[in-house]
Each structure stands twice: as C-alpha cells, then as structure tokens.
C-alpha cells in the first residue's frame, strides 16, 4: 500500500523527501523485514495471551522424550503470529499488482487455512489426528495445480526463451522435453504435463516436510528462515538482468518482488523465534508449519530454482525420508516376521537424537548449522555450475 500510495502521489506531482526510496528493492526488502519482525514482536505477546486465555494448548502424548511432558498446555496455533506479521508487512511494502506477490499471498492464506482447520479440529474437536491426511493432501494438491497452471499459462510470468508453439504456454529456460518418451507435438505436451506434475510434487513435499520438521522448539522456524534468506537472494539475482546474465541464470522480470516477500517472511520467522526458542512460549502448530512449507515451495517454483530444493531444504528432505523409511521398514518386518522393527529409535530424525539423550537445544542448534552449510552450498552452485 505504501508503494502504491507513493506512486499515486508522484503521479499527482507531490514530492516528499525520501519517498523515492520505495522504488529500490533493497530498501523495500529491508523495510519489509523490519516491519514483519516488529509486528511479530508486539502482536506475538498479545496473541499468546489470547491463546492462553482461551486454553488453546498443545495436547502431549507421552512418548518417553526428555522434557516432553513439561510442554503440555503450551499455547499452539502460534502460526497465526507468522501469518499476521507476514501479510501485514507485505500489504504495506510489496507491489500488490505483481503476479508473484499475488500468488504468494494466495499461498499464505490457502496453506494457513488448511493448517488452521487442522489445528482447530485437534484443539476444539479433541481429535488428535486432526484433519484427515487425504483431505489435507487434496487441498494442497489444489493449490499446487493452481500454481502450476498459472506459471505455465499466465502472460504475466515472462521468461527468457520461447521454445514451444503451444498456445498460451510459455517455455522456461529449463527444458524438460527429455522427460517425455514421445517426440513431436505430443512430446511437448507430455513434457509440460510432467513439469506441472513436478510443480505440484514440490509444493506438496515442501509443505509436509516443514510440518514433519516442526517437533522441537525453534527447529522449523530457524531452518525455514535460513532457507528464506537464500530464496530471497536468488530471487533478487534472477530479477536483475545484469546479475542474471553474469551468473548465467534465468532472468525473470518482476521476480524481485519475491525477494521483498521473502524478506518479510524471514522477518516474521525471526520475530516468531523470539517466543518459540527453547523453552517455547508458543508452538506454531500446523497453522504455521504448512504455511511456511507452502511459501518455500511456491517461491522456489516461481523463480525457477525448484531443482535446488533437495540441497537447500536438505533438512526437510532427510526428516521426511526418515519417516518414510521408518514406516516402510516397520510394515515390511511386521508382515514378514510378525513383529515390526525400526531403523531409527524414533522418527522424524530429530526425535531419534533426542532418544539418544542429546539435549533439545543442542539438536536444534546443530540442525541450524547444517542448514547454514546447505544454504551456502546452494548459493555456491549458482556460480560453480
């Protein structure tokens, strides 16, 4: 709103000292981060107090983890703090007529709604399993399909190169035609179908990966903030024609707004960490974790860096794999030997280390360090390649 207000004033011939700063991405990104952080700081305490008054606390099952039962009754659904501070900052600083901003705001509201419904069922309906897995996946699939169609069809999402003749469909610098077993026009259509399917899988994987990682104080928020910084930097570079040409990466006009959005995203997470670090005063719940994952997945797709996510989001990937391996091996051994066996002491992976007696703050800090190493490696690949 501030950007559009200043733009409107300039068109009227009104000049206020310093108003030109709003045309610089660097200034708006810093402003977005500061505003979202401040909103999280000041609104967070009030939201936590409201959650406590209404007894919206976490229900804890005794899984034999150290310090676990001490967290019983800690307010949950704290992801509302992240969403409120993020959207508040974005509405003030970002260009609201930009397609990337619109899609990311839609993602925030959509995933936040799914997570809120899931938490609501757990807390108020007293159903620990929350929304059914099929229901959540179906809603997430709907978001992924909407994003995939928009990316492939919308004329507001330009690209560097046009290598296809499909009406209303623009090509990307990445050529996925080799994925198709067919040639000719059928092969082109098939490759685009595969590309859209990949977008949906990326969004589903990121959203659920952060959800699985959210099991310790500050773990999901801290690692997601690190990922957010890297995506913001890559969006910045890809949105600048000189930087894009120098690094030989795809130039995407207008994608600099993703950098401003991610700055607000990181600021919101840092503000939330003020209350979420050990011992946590509030948990983000699915309201926060599903939203964070959705934003990461969609933003990576929009700046065409989804292929770097296995490295950048390595922690989310390993956490998800640990759950898949644990469940698969347990079912296989139970069917074969009549008794289920486990690969890890407990899944997701962070609970495995907790079972081994490592203090929770140490596990979280080490995961953050690994996340920073993965982030640096991801940025290095832009030049090394």
TrEMBL record:
Membrane topology, from the record: Multi-pass membrane protein
E.C. numbers: 2.7.8.13
PANTHER family: PHOSPHO-N-ACETYLMURAMOYL-PENTAPEPTIDE-TRANSFERASE, PHOSPHO-N-ACETYLMURAMOYL-PENTAPEPTIDE-TRANSFERASE HOMOLOG
Residues reported to bind Mg(2+): 211, 286
Function description: Catalyzes the initial step of the lipid cycle reactions in the biosynthesis of the cell wall peptidoglycan: transfers peptidoglycan precursor phospho-MurNAc-pentapeptide from UDP-MurNAc-pentapeptide onto the lipid carrier undecaprenyl phosphate, yielding undecaprenyl-pyrophosphoryl-MurNAc-pentapeptide, known as lipid I.
GO MF terms, alphabetically ordered: metal ion binding; phospho-N-acetylmuramoyl-pentapeptide-transferase activity
A cellular component term, taken from the record's GO annotations: plasma membrane
Compartments reported by the entry: Cell membrane; Membrane
Catalytic activity reported: UDP-N-acetyl-alpha-D-muramoyl-L-alanyl-gamma-D-glutamyl-meso-2,6-diaminopimeloyl-D-alanyl-D-alanine + di-trans,octa-cis-undecaprenyl phosphate = di-trans,octa-cis-undecaprenyl diphospho-N-acetyl-alpha-D-muramoyl-L-alanyl-D-glutamyl-meso-2,6-diaminopimeloyl-D-alanyl-D-alanine + UMP
Keyword terms, alphabetized: Cell cycle, Cell division, Cell membrane, Cell shape, Cell wall biogenesis/degradation, Magnesium, Membrane, Metal-binding, Peptidoglycan synthesis, Transferase, Transmembrane, Transmembrane helix
Single GO biological process annotation from the record: cell division
InterPro entries according to UniProt: Glycosyl_transferase_4, PNAcMuramoyl-5peptid_Trfase, PNAcMuramoyl-5peptid_Trfase_CS
Hydrolase recorded as keyword: no
Domain of life: Bacteria
Names of the cofactor(s): Mg(2+)
Residues passing through the membrane, by range: 20-43, 76-93, 99-117, 137-157, 186-206, 218-238, 258-275, 282-301, 307-325, 363-382
Protein name, per record: Phospho-N-acetylmuramoyl-pentapeptide-transferase
Similarity comment: family membership: Belongs to the glycosyltransferase 4 family. MraY subfamily.
Pathway: Cell wall biogenesis; peptidoglycan biosynthesis
Lineage, highest ranks first: Bacteria, Pseudomonadati, Bacteroidota, Bacteroidia, Bacteroidales
Gene this protein is translated from: mraY
